[in-house]
């Protein structure tokens, strides 16, 4: 038995398959040899296809307590699955770096505008550092 949890529809499908197999196996004693051999070969093919289809859907969701994790069988972890699971983290990191760079550029341009306004103004920059001048500006300049 695998340690993969069975979801309800898969459990019902497996149960139905076992019931059909039991019913078909019950009537094989009366069949001729060539028919029973063809049935055996068909069963082997069906089991092989079922195993192959089971490998394709190798990803499973496991729930433990309040968290869910995505797990793969040993055969399900391929290079593409690993790349696909790391790709969102890489995109997030690239987005954060881009946002930081854009904000730094905006801040630098704002500081440059303030500096340019201070240097091109009629008042000397030392006037803005004077506490009396700030009081004069707050009172309305009268």
Provide structural commentary.
The structure is a single chain. The chain has 142 residues and is mainly alpha-helical. The chain has 2 domains: 8-76, no CATH class; 78-142. It contains 5 helices and 2 strands; from the N terminus they run ααββααα. A two-stranded antiparallel ribbon has the order 1-2. A hairpin with a 2-residue loop joins strand 1 and strand 2. The radius of gyration is 37 Å and the shape is rod-shaped. It starts with 7 loop residues before the first helix and ends with a helix. The mean pLDDT is 78.
How are the elements arranged and paired?
Layout: H1 8-26, H2 33-56, E1 59-64, E2 67-72, H3 79-120, H4 125-129, H5 131-138
């Amino acid at each position: 038995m695998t340690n993969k949890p069975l979801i309800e529809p898969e459990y019902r499908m497996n149960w139905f398959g076992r019931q059909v197999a039991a019913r078909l196996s019950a009537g094989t004693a009366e069949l001729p040899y060539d028919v029973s051999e063809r049935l055996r070969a068909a069963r082997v093919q069906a089991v092989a296809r079922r195993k192959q289809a089971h490998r394709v859907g190798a990803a499973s969701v496991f729930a433990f307590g309040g968290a869910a994790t995505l797990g793969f069988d040993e055969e399900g972890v391929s290079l593409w699955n690993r790349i696909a699971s790391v790709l969102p983290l890489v995109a997030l990191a690239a987005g954060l770096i881009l946002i930081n760079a854009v904000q730094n550029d905006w801040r630098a341009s704002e500081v440059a505008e303030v500096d340019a306004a201070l240097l091109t103004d009629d008042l000397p920059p030392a006037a803005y550092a004077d506490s009396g001048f700030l009081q004069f500006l707050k009172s309305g300049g009268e």
